[in-house]
Amino acid sequence: MAALEAYASRNADEVHTDVLLKARQACYKSRDAFYDCLEKESNKKPTEIASVGLLYPAECKALRAQFVNHCRASWVKHFDRLYCKNKRVTRLLDDGGETRRGPLTLPQPYTFKPSSGSS
């Protein structure tokens, strides 16, 4: 243990990019496995709660634990937010198989006309 502390104090400013790269790749791999599980098990009732309100089925619990262990907490929160945002956008844009035809109808601006008499 003393040798490790001596090495760390001697090379305090040295960045081990290979270690950082391997940790990042492990994080991405566990993230992808967890979100693949979410997609695969999407027909099952979600019973577990993750960060930012993400719900997932119990079948993905082990993969979630791996994801949380391999990634920084701030990354997990970021990836959960990103996944929720992408699912929300997909759900909003999905028209249930019907194709949209014609121009997109936008709400017309509201014109306020004051009444001429007092009530």
Features:
119 residues, mainly alpha, elongated, COX6B-like, CX6/COA6-like_sf, COA6_pln, disulfide bond, Cytochrome c oxidase assembly factor 6
In terms of topology, how is this protein built?
Layout: H1 2-10, H2 17-40, E1 48-49, E2 55-56, H3 61-70, H4 73-93
Antiparallel strand pairs: 1-2
Helix pairs in contact: 2-3
Total helical segments = 4
Number of strands: 2
Q: What string, H for helix and E for strand, traces the elements in order?
A: HHEEHH
Strand order of the largest sheet: 1-2
Can you summarize the main beta sheet? 2 strands, antiparallel
Q: Please report the distance between the alpha carbons of the first and last residues.
A: 87 Å
How confident overall, as mean pLDDT? Answer: 79
Helix fraction, binned, reads 40-55%
Over the alpha carbons, how many angstroms does the gyration radius reach? 25 Å
| Estimated share of beta-strand residues | under 5%
Question: Which regions have little confidence, pLDDT < 50, spanning 5+ residues?
Answer: none
- Secondary structural class: mainly alpha
**Outline:** elongated
